[in-house]
Design a protein that fits this description.
Layout: H1 2-30, H2 32-49, H3 51-62, H4 98-134, H5 136-150, H6 154-165, H7 170-197, H8 200-207, H9 212-220, H10 225-248, H11 260-263, H12 266-269, H13 277-304, H14 306-309
Helix pairs in contact: 2-4, 2-13, 3-4, 4-5, 4-7, 4-10, 5-7, 6-7, 7-10, 8-9, 10-13
Length: about 300
Amino acid sequence: MAAQEETVAEIVGGRAQKSFLKANWILWKRRPLGLMGLIICTLMLLTAATAELWQVIAANASGYEGEQPYKYALSAYAQLVPPNGEHFLGGDRYGRDAFTRIVFGAQISLYVGFAVALGAGSIAGLLGVMSAYYGGKIDLIGQRLVDILQAFPGLILAMAIVAILQTFSIEATIVAISVPTLPRMVRVVRSQALSVVRTDYVLAGRTIGATDWRLILRYIIPNSMAPWIIVVTGQLGSAITTEASLSFLGLGVPEPHPSWGGMLNANALDYAELAPHIIIYPGIALSLAVFGFNVFGDALRDVLDPRMKGTR
């Protein structure tokens, strides 16, 4: 009898899984931009992961034999040189290989984006759940702090944090970008957690004496994950844009580290007419990254939010 029940459960579970996969595949077909975004994100991750290999290929093409990493190597002969067989995307104003720096710029942009999205997202998720669960003065004080942070434009607040930290580094950039992203994430997770807190199984858990942390970790957080995943994915593109903006203003990732925003800074604009490639290619890389993560986040929202499935 037990074996029969197990077989029936496997059949039903298999049918449910096939139905779920079929429904999501239909949804991806209806949202081709989401699939395109996923492809772009995957290619960027692969490029960042194989940056060292691309550096070796570029160095061999140019005949570089120095001990310094090629992404930092200066060459008077490569200053503002257009794309050619030795420098695939040309050289920047210091004679550094633009292709290698754009590839390593993907590493930094993705590192900052994921660090901000996952780090700030985890903190915001926990704060939002605790605010919804405990309510009362904790919720009141927490939401007023969120209101204060939301009163400042994100970029202005990030610039102020960099000024307070008085240091220019990748870590300082991550902290500066993370703080302005907290309010929206807290609000999204809190709104979902409020509905979960009022469910029968949470009330039953309280009745039988389950501890607060057991209820939060076992029931509330898992059932609040869907909007959290959506907002974290959407925040990736925003974090990459903010990092590029700070680096463009000279307040983000410092030289000589390659950063897309740093390649687009005001000094590069002085050479735009003479060597437009030093602006065009970093701009394309930045645009593709933001576009890919944004459209992928929109499609992911449609997959995870059941209210959206019937509207497409």
